[in-house]
Amino acid sequence: MDNPSRIFWFSGTGNSLYAAKRLSAKLGDLPLAQMVDGATSGSVGGEGARVGFVFPSYYGNLPRAVRAFVNKIDIRPGTYLFAIVTMGGVGQGSVAALDKALRKKGSHLSYGRGLPMPANYVIKYNPADPDKSARSMDKANNRIDKFAAEIAAGIKKVKSLPVTANNLYKNIEALDTMFSVDDKCTGCGLCERICPVKNIRLENGRPKWLHHCEHCVACISWCPERATQYGDHTQSRRRYRNPWIQADELMRQE
C-alpha cells in the first residue's frame, strides 16, 4: 500500500502549507503532497490510515482546485479523513463544503476545523501588519498543536457552518483581466512558476494570465519587486507571505 496516510495541501501565500507542515511534524511526519493533477495515483488511506486536507477558505467555500482534486481522488473505506481550513475570516463553511463533496464519493470527514491565520487577500484589503500577523501566528501554532493532538487520538469532531454564497468564480474568464505588472517587473518568471494552477505564462519577458485564475494571490504576494498589481487596488498595500515558507516550496509539484 503506497502512502496510506498523508496530508494534501493547497496554498497561495504559504499559510496553508505552513499549517500542513506543522501538522505533519506533530503527526509523525506524514508525507505531504500538493493538491494538483498528478499528485496521487491509485487509492489512498484505508483502515487505520489518516488522510488530511489543508487549504484556505474562499468566501466560505472550496477553491475550485481543491474541489477538482477531491472529486478525482480515490479514498479507501475506513480512512480517518481530516481537514484544516485556514481563514482570515469565517472558514467553517468550507469544512461543510468539503464534507459534502466527500459524501458524494461515499466518504466523510472525521475531523474538520477552521484555523484563523493572518488575513492576506490583498485584492480586497490591506493585509495585516507584521506585529498583528505575528500575534495571529502564535495563536495559530497553539491551535494547530491542539488539532494535531486530537487527530492523533482519533477524535471525531467536525465544526462547520452552512456554506456561504460564493461569487468568486461567477465570471471565471474575467477574474484575472485586472492583473498586470508595472515597470519594476524584471521578467524573473517567479509568478509563472509559483502559480498552482498554471494560469500564468511568460511571454516576451512579461507574464500573461490565461483566464483560469484561483485568486490565490501568490503572483502578487511573492513578486520580489512588488511589480504585480490588480487594477489600481494594490499599489500601496502590504504584501503578505508566510515568513516560514520559501517560494520554491510552493512551486507546482507533479
Summarize the structure.
This protein is α/β, with parallel strands linked by helices and 254 residues long. It contains seven helices and twelve strands.
Name the features:
254 residues; Rossmann fold; six-stranded parallel sheet; 7 helices; 20% strand
Could you explain how this protein is built, in words?
The protein has 254 residues and is an alpha/beta fold. It has two domains: 6-158, Flavodoxin domain (Rossmann fold); 172-250, Alpha-Beta Plaits (2-Layer Sandwich), CATH 3.30.70.20. Helices cover 28% and strands 20% of the residues. It contains seven helices and twelve strands. The strands form four sheets. A six-stranded parallel sheet has the order 2-1-4-6-7-8, with helices on both faces. A two-stranded parallel sheet has the order 3-5. The protein has a two-stranded antiparallel ribbon with strand order 9-12. The model has no long low-confidence stretch (mean pLDDT 91).
Going across the biggest sheet, name each strand in turn.
2-1-4-6-7-8
Rg over alpha carbons: 18 Å
How many strands in all?
12
Number of domains: 2
Task: State the end-to-end CA separation.
Answer: 20 Å
- Provide mean pLDDT, rounded: 91
Question: How many strands, what sense, and barrel or not for the largest sheet?
Answer: 6 strands, parallel
Assigned CATH superfamily of the largest domain: Flavodoxin domain
Taking pLDDT < 50 over at least 5 consecutive residues as the criterion, the unreliable ranges are none
CATH class of the largest domain: Alpha Beta
CATH-level-2 architecture of the largest domain = 3-Layer(aba) Sandwich
User: What string gives the helices and strands in order?
Assistant: EHEEEHEEHEHEEHEEHEH
Structural class label: alpha/beta
| Number of DSSP helical runs | 7
Helix content: 25-40%
CATH-defined topology of the largest domain: Rossmann fold
Report the portion of residues in β strands: 15-25%
Shape: globular
